């Protein structure tokens, strides 16, 4: 599988399985390329077509940099019924902003808000424990939405 390894102004560099690197122009992509995304390449040169790989992300323990890259817009495939999780995330954001003057509660509101975003994107499982903790420590409405929303417990 090919992977985007470097992005310059108008050039996108893709690493292949055989450790070789191919260079493409930005206009050859029908999506916004992001470093680390797996892609499929059809053809060669200017006529090549590059598409995103259809793989759904597998849950793995996050590294510190993954938490920030998810919030900044790394695209993950949507899961069915995720509207409730998105609404829960929005309520978490509003509650966290509203309680910004309280420093101690932010210690658990910020990580739980990030976890709710990751649950919405399908990277982190939406568990009953996450819904209960959100209900108790962040926001009643978002906690209820996470409890009745789609579960993918692991």
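^ Assign residues to that structure.
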């Amino acid at each position: 599988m090919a992977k985007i390894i470097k992005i310059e102004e108008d050039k996108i560099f893709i690493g292949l399985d055989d450790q070789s690197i191919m260079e493409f122009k930005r206009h050859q992509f029908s999506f916004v390329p992001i470093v680390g995304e797996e892609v499929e390449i059809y053809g060669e040169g200017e006529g090549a077509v590059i598409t995103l790989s259809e793989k759904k992300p597998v849950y793995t323990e996050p590294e510190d940099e993954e938490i920030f890259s998810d919030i900044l817009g790394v695209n993950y495939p949507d899961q069915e019924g995720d509207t409730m999780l998105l609404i829960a995330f929005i309520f978490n954001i509003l509650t966290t902003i509203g309680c910004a003057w309280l420093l101690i509660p932010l210690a658990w509101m910020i990580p739980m808000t990030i976890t709710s975003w990751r649950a919405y994107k399908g990277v982190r499982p939406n568990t009953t424990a996450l819904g209960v903790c959100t209900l108790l420590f962040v926001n009643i409405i978002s906690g209820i939405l996470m409890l009745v929303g789609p579960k993918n417990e692991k």
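The first helix runs from residue 64 to 71.
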